[in-house]
Amino acid sequence: MNTNTEILNFLYLTSPRIGKSYQSSGINPLPESLSLTKDSIKERLYLGQMHLSKFPDFIFSSKNQLKYLFQNSIKNIKKILKIELKSNFSPIFCKKLNIYLTLREKVTNLILKEFKKFNFDECDAYTEIFELDPVMFEVIGNLFDEKYSLESIKDLESRYNDLYQAKLKHIEEKTNNKISKNAEILSKKVLENTKVAKTQKQKISKKDAKKVEKDLEKAEQTIDPVLCEIKSKSKQANNKEK
What we know:
Elements: H1 5-14, H2 16-25, H3 38-47, H4 63-82, H5 91-112, H6 122-130, H7 134-139, H8 156-201, H9 206-241
Helix pairs in contact: 1-2, 4-5, 8-9
C-alpha cells in the first residue's frame, strides 16, 4: 500500500483520525489536484492554534439525541455539496470549502461508529470536528440543526476571510507578547548577572578579573539580539496600529 508522506503529514495536522484512516486504507480524501504549499501548511498550523471556547448545550443531550444531531450534520453537508459552489465563490475558496465538507463528513461518519463504545466522549468528538477548521466551523453555521438553511453560506467567503484575519491577528499579538515577555525576563536576568559580575570584579584579583571581563562580553552579546528583537516587535506593532 502506497501513501504519500506529504499528504499523510498534512492529514495528521488536520485530523489524526483522518491521518490514521489514510495510513491504514491508502485512500486519500483530498482532491488529487491538490498541491500542498508552504502557505497551505502555514495556514493549517495557524488553524491548529485556534481553540474551542465553549460547548453548546446540545452536546450534553442523551446519546440517542446527540447521534441524531451528528447524522443531521451529514445530511446538511450533502445538501451544500450538491450546490454549484463555483458560481458562488472563488476557485480557491471553493476548493477549501469542498475539502472541509468532505473531511467533516468523513470524520463525523467515523465518530458515529464509536457512539456505542463505553468510553465514547461527546466533548472530544465535538472538539475533533471543530478543529478541522475552527473558522469554517463558526461561519458556516450550525450544521447539526435539522432546520439548517442554505442561506447560512451566503457571503461565506468574505465572512471566512474576515474572521480568519481577526483570529490570525489575535494569535500574532499573543505570540508577540509571549516573545516580548520571555525576552524581558531574559534581559533582566542578564542585566542582573552583569551587575553582579561588575561588583565582583572590583573585589577580585587581576587574573580573575580577565575571566569576569569575558563573562561580561558574553552577557552583552546575549542581551543585544534580545533587545533588538524587542525593539523590532514593538516597531511592527506600532506600524500596525497606524
